[in-house]
Recover the amino acids of this structure.
């Protein structure tokens, strides 16, 4: 399976439990996923993932989930350092 028509449309960022993401279609037929999260200072941290047009949905889901966890861990480490619990 390839990138479906629904996944080739633009999706504006929406917030879900402090985590936002957007899907931006590319001229090549692929899609760019932008993942955002704010730390306690309200600074934005982002991760970008590009997927070609021939990428299947399962691969996209797995990679976006991995990127989301990496972003969560990074921002959580920053928040803990700001609270003085750990050193970054």
């Amino acid at each position: 399976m390839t990138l479906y028509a629904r996944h080739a449309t633009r999706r504006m960022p929406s917030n879900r439990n402090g985590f936002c993401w957007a899907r931006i279609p590319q001229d090549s037929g692929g899609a760019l996923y932008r993942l955002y999260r704010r730390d306690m200072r309200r600074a934005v941290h982002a991760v970008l993932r590009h997927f070609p047009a021939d990428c299947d949905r399962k691969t996209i889901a797995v990679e976006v989930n991995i990127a989301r966890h990496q972003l969560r861990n990074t921002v959580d480490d920053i928040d803990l350092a700001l609270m003085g619990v750990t050193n970054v």
Summary: The beta strands are 11-16, 19-25, 31-38, 44-51. The CA atoms of residues 4 and 18 lie 27 Å apart.
